[in-house]
Design a protein that fits this description.
By secondary structure, the chain is mainly α. It contains five helices and no strands. It has one domain. The chain is globular and about 65 Å long.
Length: 143
């Protein structure tokens, strides 16, 4: 039993060191790619949450693609313009966490305003989507 514990502890320790060494080699371009992937998925997740898990999304697909592009451009634009991808994130603290939260809140406000402007000026663009979609998307983005 003791040798099994030692072997499992050695494996966990070795895998943790390998994972940490890989994580420490991440650069801001990797974070940008990760954000692009995650922010492209969050509107779909937000719509699924808004529809209470109903997966009949065929009528929403074209509007969802347009909203996803809008949200993605706004979030990446806000994060990039305020220097999010130029910071050194290895030693991030609570101050950086509040900075990220404030940037995402600003992006949510902008994307909500743009979502409403697009909805009112071009009514056939995103009229099928719920109006709470930008807020739910923002909550998922902060997470």
């Amino acid at each position: 039993m003791n040798s099994l514990f030692m072997v499992s502890h050695w494996l966990i320790d070795k895998s943790t060191k390998i994972l940490l060494s890989k994580l420490l080699k991440l650069r801001n371009r990797h974070l940008l790619i990760f954000d692009l992937i995650v922010f492209a998925i969050t509107p779909l997740l937000a719509l699924i949450l808004r529809l209470d898990g109903d997966l009949a999304l065929q009528s929403y697909i074209s509007d969802l693609v347009k909203a996803t592009l809008l949200f993605l451009i706004v979030k990446i634009g806000v994060l990039y313009s305020f220097g999010f991808y130029r910071r050194y994130w290895r030693y991030a603290s609570v101050e950086e966490l509040t900075y990220v939260a404030m940037l995402i809140v600003a992006a949510v406000v902008i994307q909500t305003l743009l979502f409403d402007v697009v909805n009112f000026t071009l009514p056939s663009t995103v009229d099928r989507l719920p109006r709470s979609l930008p807020f739910i998307d923002g909550l998922l983005s902060i997470i």
